[in-house]
Amino acid sequence: MMRKSAWRQMTGPEMWMGLFALAVTLSLTMAEHVDQRPALQTSPVLHRHKREWLWNNLYVEEERPTNKQYYIGKLKSTKSGDGTHYVIKGEGANTIFKVDEKGHIYVTERLDREEKSKYLLSAKLFDTSNILVEKVEEFVILVTDINDNDPVFTKSFNASIKERSKSGTKVIEVTATDADDPTTANGELAYTLLEGGDFFNIDNTTGIITTKYDNLDRETQSSYVVVVQAQDLRGLKQGGTATTSVTIAVSDINDNIATFTKRSYVFSVKEDMKRGQRIDTIVLEDRDEIQNKDPIVTIEPPSDTFEMERSQNKDGNLMLKQELDYETKSSYTFFVHVRENHLQSPVDNKDNPVIKAQVTIQVLDVDEQPEFSKSIYNFNVIEEIMVNNIGVVSARDPDKANKAIRYSIEDKDSPIGINPITGQLFTVRKLDRELVANHMFQVKAKEEPNGLESFVNVNILVIDINDNKPELSIEEIFVCENDMAGTVIGTISATDKDYNLPAFSFTLVKPNGNFSVVDNNDNTSNIVLKHGGFSLEDSRDYVIEIGISDGGRPPMSSITTLPIKVCRCDNKRIHTQCKAAQLKMGVGVYTLIPILCILTILIIVILIAMRKRHQKDSLVTLGKSEIHEQLVTYDEEGGGEMDTNGYDVSILTSARNDGSMSMRQGPSLYAMVKKPPTACKGDMAVMIEVKKDEADHDRDGIPYDTLHIYGYEGPESLAGSLSSLDSSSTGSSLDYDFLNDWGPRFKTLAELYGVDGSEGSDSLY
What we know:
This protein has 765 residues and is mostly beta strands. Helices cover 11% and strands 33% of the residues. The protein contains 6 helices and 43 strands. The longest helix has 30 residues, at 589-618. The radius of gyration is 65 Å and the shape is elongated. It is found in: Cell junction, Adherens junction; Cell membrane. Keywords: Calcium, Cell adhesion, Cell junction, Cell membrane, Cleavage on pair of basic residues, Glycoprotein, Membrane, Metal-binding, Repeat, Signal, Transmembrane, Transmembrane helix. InterPro entries: Cadherin (IPR039808), Cadherin-like_dom (IPR002126), Cadherin-like_sf (IPR015919), Cadherin_CS (IPR020894), Cadherin_Y-type_LIR (IPR000233), Catenin-bd_sf (IPR027397).
């Protein structure tokens, strides 16, 4: 945006042209003076030619209107004449700047110094034949500045200052820019405050804002808005201006003491409140921001029952330090005090702070659960005996009602019982330390009749007695053929399940002519050879019986049979071949019990498998016997077939060829039997009932809803064949009326084979 320059009003274009002419004249005069100096005669190398070009820099004013081109200067050369002409090249040559034959330079366009402040060009001088008369010479056209740009604030400004800051404290530096030439008054700026001067100052040249006084108070006013003006021409009225707003926030410091909101507090607390819980919060009033608060609330004098803690909001949490008991004390009264660390003095609210308050705690009575006399009970019980009085578990009702207490043990399988009235413990059965060395259970105490209940842990330690026999512990014992008398062929030891430290002693139950036992007095003994001369060819077996005593009270002993092998050994007594001993070490009762159980289970499984096999074998196939007919009996709870009179005889088609039955697809249960050589009226009924009973008890059979029972009669049957495959019903002389006597189950069979005089057809269906 163009605006009229105050500088131009004071000077005018005529003054500029005069200054330009004066500068050119001075330049030419100085050039001629230099060229006329005598050359140095002593050194031809330093000889200079006379300078032909006669000009210096050219100047043009920015933003000058160009309704027509205007003259700014002339190119001069000592070689110019009537037949010469000038040519210029470079930035803006022949477009912005033009030159005529006489060297006059004209400007054809409006120029802007802020876009380009100088132009670099070069000039040449030619004769009429376009032959270069003067060598190329460079020159510069400078664009002079006018005040055509206002100051600009390129960003927004925000600042903060702590309250109570000293006078003159720097707040922020505000800067503006001006596109005009900074080396002239056009680009020099001056800063002033249009608003906010009551609390802040600004440096006219640098734009630094500082505090005017030291009484800034955030609690009174937390922020200020300052309006800054920047003006060029060093602040003259003719200069351009720009303004900006600066927001200055006053930051907080701890200059207010925290106070209580009232002078007394009353709180009610149930007596069953747990230790460490919060009773309530005593709110503090503090005008400072929370990050600057630093209150410390204390109970004075200190209390063993209550304490103060700082909350997340920096208030005071009243905490329970020790459990309460309404029956012991029903109310408490004490004082709380507040103070602050890192407090800026003098404080703003020094005249009326409440830093001391009275607190009253009222304890509320509640129905409490029974209390045991101990947190855990420990008793000792000797194993393998019944004890009527192990000890007493005691609890009481802490309330004033002092209700009666009833005791019980929740674990129904516990070997320990309790008297429900007195809490006396006793054994229900004998204890065995080797099975369970420590019994832990809970006793429940409940207020009668239906009051509160509580639990306590009871630990019963089982005291050991010497009730287990020692057991021999030994690795392989053998004697070598080359062993001599006195050789130790092995070391034996023992173990004992009892807790007491054993003092084992070992002896030979029967005197032995080959071996002896020597006690080492360290719970071990050596087996020593009495003589040598043992051989693998000797058919005798060597066995010794070792007696062991544990030395307890009362002492327990055991006898163990120990076989000794005869081996062939090398020089290091490493056996290479041995003869197995006939007898082995004795097997304990605890080892025999699982072995007998396994054998019993195995025998039962074999018997069940044999029974299953026998049931399957009872369903015998006919082999290559002749099959004549299929007899089908439908159960009353069948699959819901509509036609229960249908009988399938297609299964008999291939039986004569391969001795088997060719069945249709689909699961069926068949029991195939051979009919006895003779049959009477009741034999078939018995046979069918037997087969039906076998099918009912056969667990391997698939439980279909239809029972198929087939009776087959071979060619050797005296009763003949019941099959109707080879003969029609009219040609048969057999009488099947007896089937009607067998009951409702054989009604369908009787109708099938019975004689119906009204029918004239040969078909059975």
